[in-house]
Structures are given as C-alpha cells and as structure tokens.
C-alpha cells in the first residue's frame, strides 16, 4: 500500500482581516481609557472646587469668630480674612484666596456675611442655579450638596 505523501502548506503569519480586528480592539480600549480619564478629571476638579469653597467658608467664619464686632449682614471684605489680615498681630485665616481649578477664575463672594449654613462663595463655573442648562443636565455644578457642618 502506498502512503499519501501530500504535504499541506501552512501559512505562517496573520491575515489582513485578523490584523484589522486586533487594531480595532486596541483603538476601542484606548478610547474607553480616554473617556474614563476625562470623567475622572472633571470629578476631581469639581471636588477641588467644593473643597476650595469650604475653605473660603471656614476662613470667613473664622474671621467672624475672631472679631466679635463682625455680625451677620455686615459688609464682607475679602481682604479682611485672606492675604494680609486687617487685624494687627493676627494671621489671616485664609492665606491665599483660591481659584476654581476648572475655569481658573475667582469665586463670587456674597456682599455681606450670610447666616450660618449659607455659603459665602460660589464658583463662577457652577453656582447655585446661575449655571447653564447643559451644566445642570450633566450634573457639573460646582456646589456642595449640603453645607451642614460648615
């Protein structure tokens, strides 16, 4: 009996379709990574903005507590509690007035010392209701959910 001596040629390497599928999968994974990084950065900026507002709030309340002549409704002067303190021999509660990390703008301050629980500052990029409809829909408002404990 005669044995089959046919040899089957196997091709080494990948086809163009396989290479295209691999490249498409890699591009899909990279795009998912960039989308996730963008949302991470937006969330981090929003959190930093809220922390800055909290710091301004605490600086204003500290100044108000250190100076018994300052009451609710009195004019709010940012230079009194940030930078160089207006009261001699006292360090300013807030050495430097922070800026919003997203918009690189200063915070909008109230004209007077508000009652406790009311924010002293709001972010120009997302205040309490003065934001754009797009920002409200995205949940991209730079305002704390609650000011309890401030």
Automatic annotation (TrEMBL):
Alphabetized PROSITE patterns for the sequence: PROKAR_NTER_METHYL
Membrane spanning stretches: 21-41
UniProt xrefs under Pfam families: N_methyl (PF07963)
Cross-referenced InterPro entries: N_methyl_site, Pilin-like
Keywords of this entry: Membrane, Transmembrane, Transmembrane helix
Keyword Secreted listed: no
Protein name listed in UniProt: Prepilin-type N-terminal cleavage/methylation domain-containing protein
Organism the protein comes from: Rubritalea halochordaticola
